[in-house]
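Re-running Aspartokinase to confirm reproducibility after the cluster update. Everything else is unchanged from the original entry.
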Amino acid sequence: MRVVKFGGSSLANGPQVQKVLNIILAEPKRRVIVTSAPGKRSDSDIKVTDLLIKYANCVLQKRDYQAALNQIWTRYQEIADFFDISQNSLQPLKQELIELPLTNYANYDFLMAAFKAHGEKINAQLLTLILQKQGVAARFLDPKTAGLLVSDVPNDAAVLPQTYQNLKKWRHTQELLIVPGFYGVTESGQIATFSRGGSDITGAILAQGLQAELYENFTDVNAIYASDPRIVTHPQPIQVMTYRELRELSYAGFSVFHDEALIPAIEGQIPIKVKNTNHPDLPGTMIVPEQHFHTQNVITGVASSNHFAALYLHRYLLNKEVGFTLKLLQIFYQFNISYEHMPSGIDDLTVIFDKRQFTKELRQQMCQKIQEVLNPDYLEWIDDYAILMIVGEGMRNKIGVMKLITSSLAKKNIGLHMINQGASRISIMLGTKQADAPIAVSEIYHQFFN
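Result of re-run:
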């Protein structure tokens, strides 16, 4: 049995949904389908999830929301019209949208979560109607009925362990199950969503809970590529890669999967295949456990991201002072800031952050506190910072990889702020200036994929 998730672009309009139907019916093993909310039909379009957020904000601000509601329903009506679904069948779906403002919620955050979740829920119900009209024994399976229980964090929920036991009873159902992605239900019955992009998480949870042989994730790309096509022209598609390779590359900008989506699949050791809804006959990319994996390539991919910043701190005899790092971490905790890496020397250290956590005021307050408590000789905030990740299972047993990387960058006069190799020996992290990052990615790619 396979669990299959379709992204928002795959379900954006009638013609795209027809492609989804063809894919579902082409393989009898595809028994559990996870839906996203309708995505963009064009670059200038608006995702249904964003329209639902607009709808929710109108309700919260006590403004007229009829225009937002009409805009949302029009998207579903267009898909329904494409398949000639009757108004009688659609009325319960529309009524559910209309009644969202009238429902009782624990607080405003749970209201927002419920509104957002209905993008996936209505789409799953509509897809079920379409399949039933075509004679398919399909069933809409709500997360509450399925037993998909999550924590009480309304817009960043985590799956609860008992969910996997609850899901087992659906393993041998004869019906085609259509499950909305992106959300679960708390133990008190409130809807709570995963962080945005969380339909991928739903698919992985179901794949583990149902012990699927494969989790197929259909999106709008042909494969995962060894580098960003916006940086490298026609990069090599990756045929097979490991879970941890994808996790490492996702850290530096690979955006095919939601960052947390692989965790349930990894725990369940479920292989994942990424494919293109528009070109389903292409092989795509298979993501597998590390055991018994063999590769012919030294590196699998190279990626970069600019959403980092660094704090450089110098103080003589820093390495002799007991508790120095503890005091620094306590300051981060005080300001609710997480750090990514902390390479250090005998008299200095650099702390690398995801700078999206900061406002200008928060950064200034934190640096001032560090100055007061630790009294460094020199403190500098470095905003011009990019991280590169060079990743590959083949690096573990290859001598001279670092030489090949640094020599290719030296030819382009690219300096490095930081070099760090992970304990697993399958990744090397580099810090550069932001302007140098795309050049560095291109040079490293061509060094190994010539």
